[in-house]
Design brief:
single chain; two-stranded antiparallel ribbon; 8 strands; CPL1-like; PriA/CPL1_fungi; Protein CPL1-like domain-containing protein
Length: 203
Amino acid sequence: MFLFKLLGCASLLYAAFGLPTDPPGTPRRIELSTTAVASATTAESQIGHAAELEARQLDKRACNSGFILCGNMCLAGTTCPSNIPRRRELAGRDIDTLCPMGFEPCMLPTATRFTGDNYECIRTSSDLESCGGCVYPLPGRQSGQDCSAIPNVASATCSRGQCRIETCLTGYVSNGSECIATGGFVDQDAQMSSFWRKALGPY
C-alpha cells in the first residue's frame, strides 16, 4: 500500500512540474498538430502563387504597352501568332549551329549587344535587306548590304549574296553597283540619306 501511495505522489510531482510521467527509456511521441501542418501547406502555396505572379509581371514588363511577349519577341497585339520567326538560344553552342543550313544568325535591329537569344535566322544569299551578310551582324561577323537602301534605286534584288539593281529613279542609270545621275554625278544627298537610314535602323 505504501508503495502505491509513493508512486502516486511521484506522479503528482511530475505533473506539477511538467516533467514526463512515462517510465525512463520510454520513447516520446512528437505529434504535429493539424493546424501546424495546414499552416505550412498554406505558406508553401502562397509562395508558389507569388512566384507565378512575379513571372507574369516580368513577362508584362518585358514589352512596351500594346505589345505582347511571344517567345523572345515583342509583337503588336494581344495574342501570339502561330508562325513566329525562328529564334534560338545560344546555350553554349557555336554560332554556326544557331540556324539551319543556308541561314545566318543576325542580331535584331533593336539590339545593342548580343545576349545569346536576341537574333533571327536570315537567308543572306537572297534577302533584300541583308544581302551577302547581316546588316546587323553578330560580333566578329562581316556585315552585308541593304539592297533597298542603295541611293536612287527604284527596284533591286539580292541574288547569291550580291545586290542586283533592276531599275533606278528617273534621271539615274545603273553602273552595276549603284545608280548614278545621267550627267555622271552621284547624288550626295541621297547617299547621306541612305547612310543615316542604315545607321539608325527602322523607326
